[in-house]
Request: fold
Amino acid sequence: MPRMLDVSDDVRAEIGDEEADRLLAGENTPGSYDCTSCRTPGDSGQERTSTVLFVGEETAVLAFAHASCLPSQIVTVSEEQLQGAVRSITGDGGDVPAEAAPAPSQAVLGVTSGLVLIEGELRPALVVEPTGPIARPGAAPGGGDDFLPLLIEQGFMPVASLDTVPPVLHGWSVLLAMGQLHAVFQPGPHGSAPVAWWQAHQPLQVTEDWRTAVNKTQTVLLFAAPAGSIGRQPREDLLRDALDNAAARGLLAAGSMPLAGT
Reply:
């Protein structure tokens, strides 16, 4: 039975015309699936469905998503991430560390997800705080922490209070796939394809409430502060207090960005 399936030109080129045609004919396509983005059920026989090809160094995995969540596309991830995604699909997952890939100065970016109340609405947010000072590329060791100035140079806005939603950071996006956070992308140099600004060692778990909120708004707020400004907070009310304190001390920058591919 033919499926209501979208196969992008990039995905078709990667998997080949023969395989793409079999998918469209319904030969290799599951009727029902869990959306790789929002993790809620979908039915390719009843609603438009996107083919999403996750490609690692040695492995490729074809997944399916509601067309309203993600367009058909190729998502390049590390082999470790891809194997972690496969384990999550097969139920062989483990605890997911909340640490991220090294920043330019080799400090580690800690990323926390939470809901932040702004303008009377709970907004899905990511809070980024390095484990140590971030030096400007090429700077001498011990030259101080340039994390905030570097962010502001890339378009983040200093935040004095959390009364309003921060402005959109054009060209930036957040990749949520298989119901988990994979990366934050920034514009590539000289108008080239986006590159990962932060990439999880393994997909980062988020709560169901967070996923529900981000599926509603299709936008993620990203707050960032220098090392030692926020800390790991066990509850969202404590996280909000820490954000308010950082903003009051002039140590917070923020921007809004869409989900990757939307």
User: Anything to note?
Assistant: Residues 5-90 form one domain. The radius of gyration is 19 Å. The first strand starts at residue 5 and ends at 6. Confidence is low (pLDDT under 50) at residues 88-106.
